[in-house]
Design brief:
- By secondary structure, the protein is α+β, with helices and mostly antiparallel strands.
- It folds into two domains: about 170 residues, no CATH class; about 120 residues, Cyclophilin, CATH 2.40.100.10.
- Helix content is about 15%, strand content about 30%.
- The chain has four helices and 21 strands.
- It has a seven-stranded antiparallel beta sheet with strand order 7-6-9-4-1-12-11, with no helix packed on it. A seven-stranded mixed barrel has the order 13-20-17-18-15-14-21.
- Helix 1 runs parallel beside helix 4.
């Protein structure tokens, strides 16, 4: 069992997500940075979809009531066990009574805390992920609070060696200005040519309205091609007749402050989607803070598929390294 002494900021239980219910309006939730999430689980020998803790900006303080193995990945932070600094990106031994604590994330936005055996919460619609908007999944459908007690699941994966560092080439990279690759969206034609150009050339700033539902950006007003609005669409030029929103969709209500819709966002609505963030860069979006700068880079579907292939190959490299160096008996 794990006792929550301090909850950190927006610390929730997450796994790969609630897949298969998008058509009925249920977003997937799940880890915002799946790259860091998957590696956290690999390092402690967990099965692929084990539940972990995701914390935003500041980590929690956790007291472990039993011996276990943990790992911390994601944004750059200084983890401590019983007040002593410990490294990220490797398996760490925990003894009953140990206290894991953190400060604020230095670079990046989110950290992932994996525990051998996973966080044991009920499976709802195929997932343990927390969707706080509807209050389902995770621990009682909400972020953690002081005094919460988390159960640890049964160990089903590999026995691991602790204190084996993962090479830095597999750690996250953080940019001064984040480049987010984007495919033009279904309704990109609604933008004027000049605004299409401005969208990809502007240095956008993430506003404080940045959370698991979506990120809002400030930087440039965009104009839509004038037209008589179709039946069923609203009066705003950015309105369309309702359509579905893929994860990573970018909409621009009234042409002001684009919004990138993320893991906990609504699945459809009546705003034009001018672009879609490619799947491999959604991990990067999950590590961007408020007030940081973003440039959107226009890419093709072929570029997106190649980026996904490269990310898969990188994770395969991580898996191979861990199997050869961290898992016992391999």
């Amino acid at each position: 069992m794990i006792k929550v002494r301090k909850p950190g900021i927006e610390t929730t239980v997450q796994d790969e997500g609630r897949i298969g219910y998008y058509s009925i309006g249920m977003p997937p939730s799940g880890a915002m940075d799946k790259y860091s999430y998957q590696i956290a689980n690999m390092l402690v020998g967990n099965v692929r979809n084990a539940a972990v803790l995701e914390a935003t900006y500041m980590g929690p303080e956790l007291e472990f009531m039993e011996d276990t193995v943990i790992s911390v990945t994601g944004g750059e932070i200084l983890p401590k066990i019983n007040g002593q600094l410990v490294p990220m990106w490797q398996a760490l031994s925990i003894q009953a009574g140990d206290v894991l604590s953190f400060g604020f994330v230095k670079r990046g936005a989110r950290i992932y805390i994996a525990v051998q055996g996973g966080i044991d919460v009920p499976i709802i619609m195929g997932s343990r992920s927390t969707y706080t908007t509807c209050g389902i999944g995770g621990y009682q459908g909400r972020s953690l609070k002081v005094g919460d007690e988390l159960l640890i699941g049964n160990i089903e994966g590999n026995e691991v060696k602790t204190n084996i560092p993962l090479p830095e080439s597999f750690h996250l990279d953080f940019e001064q200005i984040h480049t987010i690759r984007t495919i033009p969206g279904l309704c990109n034609y609604r933008l004027t040519r000049e605004s299409h150009r401005q969208f990809f050339e502007t240095e956008w700033v993430v506003t404080p309205d940045a959370n698991r539902m979506g990120y809002r950006f400030r930087g440039q007003k965009l104009d839509f091609v004038p037209r008589e609005q179709p039946f069923g669409a609203g009066s705003d030029p950015s309105n369309v007749t309702d359509l579905g929103y893929p994860i990573g969709s970018i909409q621009v209500p009234a042409g002001i402050e684009p919004i990138a819709l993320l893991n906990d966002a609504v699945t459809g609505g009546g705003y034009a989607t001018i672009g879609t963030i490619i799947s491999s860069d959604l991990n990067k979006m999950g590590q961007i803070k408020s007030n940081e700068k973003v440039r959107f880079e226009e890419v093709t579907l072929e570029d997106a598929l190649q980026a996904r292939k490269e990310l898969k190959e990188k994770l395969q490299g991580v898996s191979q390294y861990i199997e050869e160096n961290v898992y016992m008996g391999v």
